[in-house]
Amino acid sequence: IMGYKIFTHEIHSSYAARIDNYRSYDIVSKDIIQRWTYPYVPDVKFCGNRATKLERRGMYRALEIEQSRSAQVGSFTVIGYGTKIGSNSKISDSVIGEGCTIGSNVLIEGSYIWDNVIIEDGCELRHVIVCDGVIMKAGAVLKPGVVLSFKVVIGERFVVPAHSKVSLLQQPTVHDSDEELEYADNSSGTVEFSSIQGTADQSNGEMTSESSEAHKPKLGTGGVGYIWSICEGGQEEEWRHSVAPIPEDKLTELSEAMDDDQELVTQDRTALSTSGELISDSNASEGDDNEDSKDDSVYFEKEVEATFLRAVEENVKVDHVILEVNSLRGSLDFTCSLLMRLEGFFLPNC
């Protein structure tokens, strides 16, 4: 309408996806592991990654891995270079980064563990994201949807609630507006990991020396970090953007909502035909396909007719009428002929 052009390229054989939340991150990661993105798969070396060996049931193992004989690694799992796995630990549907140390009797399911993470004995992690340098002390538990930021320490036997976000940085008390955040992103660019590490080291020193007692109860004995509180009203929507599976009650609500929408569509289709007469259910089912294709054209014709009549009554200029009808072109592509007829009617010599 404003004269802007949008250029598109239709992909037929390649893979493309947008990652804008944790759930899309999880979906695309699973596509990579299941080889839908070939040749960009874990066992092919590209962009500086270490090639891993593809084994049965979709397991990927890098070189120099220390794995106990009693440890169980399930299907569609990636184990990074130099990682150590203790006895009786179970890992399934997960990605383990490089240089990680996993103790004994550890359960990891549907999770993403980044590099240089230490997980001590008896920990449980289900559907979580753990960033670089995190330490989980013995017996710690991460509920589904948890995200641990860089170099966080979870205390012994501490249970992190579901969908929690834990960071070394304190949660801002004053929230910036969307415009300010966008300006900050554009002006500062991507934050370097080295600066995050420096902040993390500084935070570790400050917390242990000044306010360790104040923060121990939040992450357990020996824990370091802050649990960010979820904004008011955000708790109900956390499941939409989490790596955790959708809860059963939410699946039921979505199913019921879809059924309600389908009933409304069925009622609308049986209401009135284009001629204004009531149509029966049998006639509606036979003519659904044809009616759908005609709806847009009928709607457009009515809009043009109303614009035409108003222009005649109010003696609107030809250029203004053409501009207004042009604004309706977003719905259908056959409007050129109608515009020609409309312009011809207004011109006195036609």
Layout of strands and helices, then pairs:
Elements: H1 22-33, E1 53-54, E2 60-61, E3 66-67, E4 72-73, E5 78-79, E6 84-85, E7 90-92, E8 95-96, E9 101-102, E10 107-109, E11 112-113, E12 118-119, E13 124-126, E14 129-130, E15 135-136, E16 141-142, E17 147-148, E18 153-154, E19 159-160, E20 165-167, H2 178-188, H3 193-209, H4 212-219, E21 226-228, H5 248-269, H6 281-286, H7 288-314, H8 318-326, H9 335-346
Parallel strand pairs: 2-5, 3-6, 4-7, 5-8, 6-9, 7-10, 8-11, 9-12, 10-13, 11-14, 12-15, 13-16, 14-17, 15-18, 16-19, 17-20
Antiparallel strand pairs: 1-2, 20-21
Keywords:
350 residues; alpha/beta; UDP N-Acetylglucosamine Acyltransferase, domain 1; nine-stranded mixed beta sheet; six-stranded parallel beta sheet; 9 helices; EIF2B subunit epsilon/gamma LbH domain-containing protein; cytoplasm; LbH_EIF2B3/5; eIF2B_epsilon; Trimer_LpxA-like_sf
